[in-house]
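Lab manual, section 2.4: Encoding a predicted structure.

Procedure: take the sequence of the chain (193 residues), apply the prediction step described in section 2.3, and record the output as structure tokens. A sample record is shown.
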Amino acid sequence: MSASTSGSVLNLIPECSEAERRGPPPAGRSSVVLRIGARFTTAARTSGDRIVASRVVSHGAILLAASQAAAAGASGAAAARVIRSAAHQVAQAKPLASSWRPGGRVMGAAGVASALVALSAGGGSTATLDEIRQATDKLGICWAEEKRTGPPQHWIQPMLVGGAMLEALLELLGEREIEAESDLPRVIAPFAG
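Recorded output:
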């Protein structure tokens, strides 16, 4: 694996063959598994029940944008826009290759990703990109209100940042929906955490 640092964004990019760069492997269904944490997002491209490639992206630039929005006293909608814009910049800094297009499904693994899917889909296990956007907007309103009134609820910011990152990655992949983890293949289960 080679590692490169771009600003505050850490990307781990596995070395891959030309055939892998051209598209998903022919055998097995390809999926993308996203695990969104408070400070990092990990994406893994799978083929069948094995991880073919992975990337870890830091939320540093997004967290900086959130702190700037808080310092400026931004409204909920403005905070969501600023955080969403930072997430798109982070996701596009080193875009996922076309070989990352799943051709199967995009899954949210554990924690923030699964919670965002459930929140966006009203408790369901599959959320659309539009539902994720609406949830991110609502989280922006909650976050801005919490900043004004206190006491702090520490779960809001990771959910807001995670929602913006999830949106950015879904758009980058050209996908319209994401499933919450349910029956991840056995090799991917440890990754899901």
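Check your result against the sample. Residues 101 and 174 are 7 Å apart (CA to CA).
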